[in-house]
Amino acid sequence: MFIGFSVSNYLSFKTAQTISMAASKVARHKEHILNGNGRKILKTGLIYGANASGKSNLVKAIDFSKDIILDGLGEVDLNKKYFRICGECYKTPGVFEYRLITHTGKEYSYGIAISYAEKEILSEWLVRIEKNGTETYIFNRDIDENGINFTESEIKIKDAEERMRWEIYLDDFGENISDSMKKKSILSDIAERSNGRQGVFSEILDIFIWFQNMIIIFPTSQYSGLNQMVEDEQIRNVFSKLLKYFDTGIESVESKMGQLEFDKILKGFRRKRLKN
């Protein structure tokens, strides 16, 4: 469940800009409200404003940061992504932060700060948020005043083997961090290496999968699975449920097999003669 997102120093955003799906105390349309971790969350949200006011850039920021989180800085184009009206912003971190609830019902704050100049991840944090507001740092990655990388965690792990593995994973992002690790997120590294073991590793995998499952649609986006929809009734049912859930007015998606009559399709097109 998506609760909120904040971004700063990216494209047209210099200072932090935030979108929140937290419902206000006044809820006129209760059918559009979900409950998450003891809080009321909106099913849908709407961003509106004048042309060139930054609406598309907010969606681009989510897409951009998602790619960094899952694939690392080496797989994204950092060219001219900072707030270019300010010349010094090239040296200022770009910061992206999410508020989310996984399928387990647990709420988290996850954020990442990147350097456009050095092309590396400067800091990264994952915080578990309890219903009573208590926060626990699952991990925090940063650089101290001497330029030394370090990681820390408030997680208490009883199992000795699990604790040792956790410390090794975090140590890879510490003082002796490699150049390749500077471009990679802790979230993706642990999710891929730990194989979703129990405890904290399971939590991290859940969050990683949450990002993997996030669907971002642009006006130019095209769906390439039409053949699958025609052939697979289960996929059609999923689409029908999604469209109905988001109150599009569409009750179901159906398909029909048939032969294309190319003569009718091409009727009206003028033939162009080729000259030698």
Give the helices and strands, then pairings:
Elements: E1 2-8, E2 17-20, E3 33-36, E4 39-42, H1 55-71, E5 94-101, E6 107-115, E7 120-129, E8 135-143, E9 149-152, H2 160-171, H3 186-194, H4 200-213, H5 226-231, H6 233-245, H7 262-265
Characterize the structure shown.
The chain is 27% helix and 21% strand. Helix 3 (186-194) crosses helix 4 (200-213). The strands form two sheets. The chain has a seven-stranded antiparallel sheet with strand order 2-1-5-6-7-8-9, covered by helices on one side. The protein has a two-stranded antiparallel sheet with strand order 3-4. It has helices at residues 55-71, 160-171, 186-194, 200-213, 226-231, 233-245, 262-265, and strands at residues 2-8, 17-20, 33-36, 39-42, 94-101, 107-115, 120-129, 135-143, 149-152. The protein is globular, with a radius of gyration of 23 Å. The protein has 276 residues and is α+β, with helices and mostly antiparallel strands.
Provide tags for this entry.
single chain, alpha+beta, two-stranded antiparallel ribbon, seven-stranded antiparallel beta sheet, 276 residues, 27% helix
Structural class of the helices, strands and pairings?
alpha+beta
Count of DSSP H/I helices = 7
Low-pLDDT sequence parts: none
Overall, the morphology is globular
Rg, nearest Å:
23 Å
For the sheet with most strands, the description reads: 7 strands, antiparallel
Instruction: List the strand order in the largest sheet.
Output: 2-1-5-6-7-8-9
Report how far apart the termini are: 62 Å
Q: In total, how many beta strands?
A: 9
**Helix-strand sequence:** EEEEHEEEEEHHHHHH
